[in-house]
Amino acid sequence: MKQLEEYVRSIPDFPEEGIIFRDVTSVLQDADGLQLAVDTMQDKVKDLEFDVVVGPESRGFIFGTPIAYNLKKPFVLIRKKGKLPCETVSIDYELEYGTATIEMHKDSIKPGQKILIVDDLIATGGTTEAMIRLIESLGGEVVGIVVMIELAGLKGRERLKDYRLESAICYEGK
């Protein structure tokens, strides 16, 4: 059986020279790779008690929904601004070159609920930190974060040091 890392396509010098892009689409395009990714991520948090799975647009949806389904938990979306139809709460956060806004339905998290965040990748941790602040603004408690890929060289783990962070694959570089 192949290791999960073997399903990830590495593309050198994208989006710029010196960067190795870790492409998750190659995992998604292979049934065994997709199953291994979901199973591995789910296994990383098997000891964690939580009420709700939260995933950001769009790859957090891909990995978070099957984990929520398998564990019979609700799944809550975090989306880019203007994509949700009901009353929302939002947060602005800094990107490398500018700012972004994410939002979620105001009634999607109840005070005191324990939350697991699921995403495809963690780099600097800025988007994840914004998601945490958004969830906590609704009274949720983030008890864990699980990602398929961690780019350790970008130090997202340090930024999120107060939260449990699990990764299926950890690459040392950027």
UniProtKB/TrEMBL annotation:
Annotated pathway: Purine metabolism; AMP biosynthesis via salvage pathway; AMP from adenine: step 1/1
Catalysis performed (reactions): AMP + diphosphate = 5-phospho-alpha-D-ribose 1-diphosphate + adenine
Domain Phosphoribosyltransferase: 41-165
This enzyme's EC code(s): 2.4.2.7
GO cellular component assignments: cytoplasm
Any GO BP: adenine salvage
Keywords: Cytoplasm, Glycosyltransferase, Purine salvage, Transferase
Molecular function via GO: adenine binding; adenine phosphoribosyltransferase activity; AMP binding
UniProt KW Electron transport keyword: no
InterPro entries: Ade_phspho_trans, PRTase-like, PRTase_dom, UPRTase/APRTase
UniProt subcellular location: Cytoplasm
NCBIfam families in the record: apt (TIGR01090), PRK02304.1-2 (NF002633), PRK02304.1-3 (NF002634), PRK02304.1-5 (NF002636)
Annotated family: Belongs to the purine/pyrimidine phosphoribosyltransferase family.
Quaternary state and interactors: Homodimer.
Function: Catalyzes a salvage reaction resulting in the formation of AMP, that is energically less costly than de novo synthesis.
The protein's name in its UniProt record: Adenine phosphoribosyltransferase
Originating species: Kineothrix alysoides
